Amino acid sequence: MKWFNPETIKPWLLLLPSVIVIGFLVGYGVWEAIAESFREWETGKWTVQYYEELLMKEAFWDSLFLSMYIAISSTLASLLIGLFLTRVLQRYFMNYRWKSLVWLPMLFPHFVAAYLIILFLSESGILSSLFYHFGWVNEIADFPFSIQSQHSAGIIFTYIWKEVPFVILMLLPIYQQFSPEEEATVRTLGGNSWDVFKTTEWPSLFPVLIETGIILFAFTLAAFEVPSVLGITYPKMLPVLSYQWFFENDWSNRPLAMAVMIITTLIILFIAFLSFWVTQRRRMHIARGR
Amino acid sequence: MSRIQEISAKSCVAVLCLLFFLVGCSTDDKEELEEQSENTSESILNQSWEDTLAEAEGSEVHFYMWGGDEGINHYIDDWVAPRLQERYNITLTRHPMDITEILQKLQTEKRAGKEDGSIDVVWINGENFKNAKENDLLWGSFTDYLPNYQQYVNKENSEQQYDFGTTIEGMEAPWGKVQYVFLYDSAKVEEPPASFADLAEWVKKNPGTFTYPEAQDFSGSGFLKHVLYDKIGIEALDGKEYNPSLLQQHSDEIWGYLNELQPHLWREGETYPSTLSDLDHLYSQGEVLFTMGYNEGRAERLIADGTFPETTRSFVMEPGSIGNLHFLSIPFNSTNTAGALVTINELLSPEAQLKKLEPSVWGDNTVLDINKLPDSYQEKLKDIERGESVLSADELQDSFLNEMDPEYTEWIKEYWISEVVQSGNN
């Protein structure tokens, strides 16, 4: 039988340790979170009351909208800027010096990046002091750029600064595979730059952009450090809201905190499946030659 | 054990058994183990202090405590730890961790039936103590067993019996005492406000120079509790049980006052500092002119290390300043209760308490009854200069207010966002 063929079993055996670790650690964690969100805190009976309560809460909806707004806008902005930089600067990135320079932000942990933003861009930050020094603003408090605002400019800015190098990292190998002949073919057939991009680059870029986008979106939606440093009092991003409910002195909100995390996970899973479905369909179209 | 814990403990154990089926343990074994260990560890309290000292000798004690203050960390690492090593041959290891996370860890261990925990001493008070006590995360009633507690602490005093309204019952030993004060830069503010009404006037005249940490922060809810005292009155709150009708009666006044302040606060009240350290940062940068917080002596070291301006002074406003005690306790699954008892007893010694009071060390007030101390220590206590930014002992004593019932704090935290932040900014 094929099953007993050692060559067939080998990859499974090799994967087994990591599958066990991931399965138990992540699986057990997710299971505990689900169980806690569906159990009455005092008695341990199964219930959906916490989800009902959550969906009735204005604070939850405001947090959800804020999180979606931040995750979508910073992901799209990072992808666009990353794509633009890779296209324009790909020749320089062959040189190791430029490549290291652009990847520099990846060395910083996210919370360090958030503190750097405070250090440079806050009302009492370095930039504001320079403005004051040169007399462009009369008082430190008049500094026009506000990082902690309803628009969450600070959070989005931090994510863009951190994630653009990641987008470049993902896109660069693709650009380095493109051969000049393909471009020449399009040009010979009378195509302009847009046609070159659309016919030679886009088909290979699209799946990678989607994949990178999902990674960034999932991370931004569920990450805690940056919004906890740069967020405002109300509304808070979902992970901060969940953390707050979880670590409150009154432990009765803990199921709610878990419910928030479960819903966040569901959103990420939904978007991931949706985009896999889209890329899969495209691949099938390409395979059929349509 | 309450029902929920029993269920989750059992389900936890069941899952663990599935996972590590080789170990092959059952819930019954766990419960037996638990009973045994409880019997052995509590019997310590029946033996003589000398026996406990002997038992603790050569052991290791793991002290889990909030680690956000360099001065406090130095005190533990460089003064307390060497002293314990020298006198009792105990090795003290400090582990920095927030108390909520410590309790989370203990709660998880409780559910999993883990009886040999890694924590021997915790630093705790208030709502966290209430939580730990209600969830059976603490070891037992031990304070009467400590020689220094017996000798130097005034047990009759109400502050030694209730921690934020929760009866202590010997489950935690007092360690220090702090009072809530406001700090200001005397070079920029001539006359700090003397009451909450004054404060409202002040922020209107000087917009953007004052704010307080959000309600979820310990110091932020501390500020709001003072507003409650101001609007509801001392008589109705100090040492009284929770009375929701008071809040109904006065809620318009309370939220009205905070909404009156909001548009004149830092950043027009659109956002608040999320922690006290954020507010301290704003103050140190000169963005705001005031900061605040528990511990009447906290400005001293921040001035000394150059974080705060040298002209920083403190003040309290009418109706007064809330003070509270902080405590030391032993978790239910400590593996070295003898060492923990000796360590806590040593931290309550007059020497350790005096050292802790020095402004360059920590500046934290003593919990010992001054009248019970030997004369030489009473003299030393009087000689300690707490620093220019600290109010006099009389002034602090005159303005002292007890912590109110924790239910009030829960109420503030629950409604502050919707009543103040949302309503004012929409």
Automatic annotation (TrEMBL), chain A:
Instruction: List the CDD domains.
Output: TM_PBP2 (cd06261)
List cellular component terms (GO). Answer: plasma membrane
GO terms classed as biological process: transmembrane transport
The transmembrane residues are 12-31, 64-89, 101-121, 153-172, 255-278
Where does the source fall among the domains of life? Bacteria
Has the keyword Transport been applied to this entry? yes
List the PROSITE patterns.
ABC_TM1
Where it sits in the cell: the answer is:
Cell membrane; Membrane
- Which coarse location class describes where this protein primarily resides? membrane
What PANTHER family does the annotation carry?
Answer: GLUCOSE IMPORT SYSTEM PERMEASE PROTEIN GLCT (PTHR43759:SF1), TREHALOSE TRANSPORT SYSTEM PERMEASE PROTEIN SUGA (PTHR43759)
Question: What family does the entry list?
Answer: Belongs to the binding-protein-dependent transport system permease family.
Q: What is this protein called?
A: Putative spermidine/putrescine transport system permease protein
Q: What organism, scientifically named, is this protein from?
A: Alteribacillus iranensis
Automatic annotation (TrEMBL), chain B:
Q: Which domain of life is it from?
A: Bacteria
InterPro entries xref list:
SBP, YnjB
PROSITE patterns recorded: PROKAR_LIPOPROTEIN
Matching NCBIfam families, A to Z?
Answer: PRK11622.1 (NF008633)
User: This protein is called what?
Assistant: Putative spermidine/putrescine transport system substrate-binding protein
Task: Please tell me the species this chain comes from.
Answer: Alteribacillus iranensis
From the broadest rank down, the organism's phylogenetic lineage runs: Bacteria, Bacillati, Bacillota, Bacilli, Bacillales
